[in-house]
Amino acid sequence: MSKAILLPVRPTVSKKVLFPLLLIPMFLGGVDSTLFNSVSYDLPVLTDSWRLWFIDGYSIALASSVVLGSRLGARTGPGVTLTAGLLVFTVAGASPALLNSPETWTAARFVQGFGYALIVASVASVIGALPNTAERTLGYTLWICTYSLGAGTGPLIGRAFVDIGAYTLLFWLPAAVALVCAFLALLLLRGINLGQAASAKIDVASSVLAFLGFGLFVAGLQSHGGALVRLMATVLGCVILAVFCMRQLRSRDPLIDVRMLSFSRLGVCSLALVFGSACYTGSVFLFSAEADSLLAILPVSVLALWVSFGGYAFHKLQSRFPPVQILQVSLTACALGLVTAAFVSLWLASLLIGLGVGVAMAAGDSYLLGSVSPKDVARAAALQETSLAVGAALGVAGFGGIFATTGSVATTSVITAIAVAVVGWTCRFNRGVLTA
Fold this sequence. Notes:
By secondary structure, this protein is mostly helical. It has helices spanning 15-39, 48-76, 78-94, 102-128, 133-163, 169-188, 204-221, 227-250, 263-288, 294-317, 323-343, 346-370, 377-406, 409-426, and strands spanning 6-8, 192-194.
């Protein structure tokens, strides 16, 4: 994402108007990140073979197009990009209410994910280009808090409307809010431009490769088809992703700078972001599978609040412990939380997983962006956003695929806990210098 200075063509929008206009879409994104994860088993149109695709289509599209969205935003300006993203989010988000097949529902989710990629790119551009450091810090803090608040609200909203038999409102209401925000963004932000717009290269071919490769890779983790079909999908996805990486290595202006992913440099930070995000979305999906009331869904909702607290805790811990140790402990907490969910208590599990995820994601963000030179911050930010979106998709696919195979929340929790613990153990081999 290009780091630029805002050049207002007309008077700057008041922060009292600007921040709510940017953060309401982030709240919607937070709600969406947990809403359908938590009620997918109660949506009548979805069958077992389409449930995971309906949830993951959104994250796959977001992961493969968030950087492309930032390039489009640099060309057209964040106001136009935010408006376009909100309109796409509105139409695609409301479409399932008028459709009655899992195929069309899933297609709408893919389109909605692209719309949210435009939203994220434009919001990040505006906040990152605020001229005052205190305003940027406030903007990022409000972004995280607003998104987390939405994520905690999502399961409660979903269960409340499903329990009264009004699940179609889960599509109409967010779409209505997004439409109002789109009108206001067009009215108030169309005069804001980024100073380096012309320098941004739009590499559609790389985005298509990322979309196909990642989509096929996720398909191999899902519960669709026989084992051989899933294996072939995974292999083909890996091949396409390898082609994508080769293309990025040869590009002078890559969408994702894969050179940064060496384990001794930023690879460990990206790994923490991917698995932290995966633990979060996967846990929401898994623990909601057997929840059938508002009371039963409360631990899942509280999980998001613990994630916010974990992010705050990291800023208190970072000066006292080495970076790799913080990453290891946070992932270990996630693994312990999953085991706790299997054998002890979901309430205690939500505390451990939430704190672990919050610290892992805050640490990954800080070390990823803080360990590069100023000229590489934009590329590191693109890697950061993509890592989070990739983790969101892999969490649902991985947890959901194992749960579909085992049929047991406890077994799934133990298997995924082992995987997370192994990743935490590999962090010890990092030899890079990480700074926040």
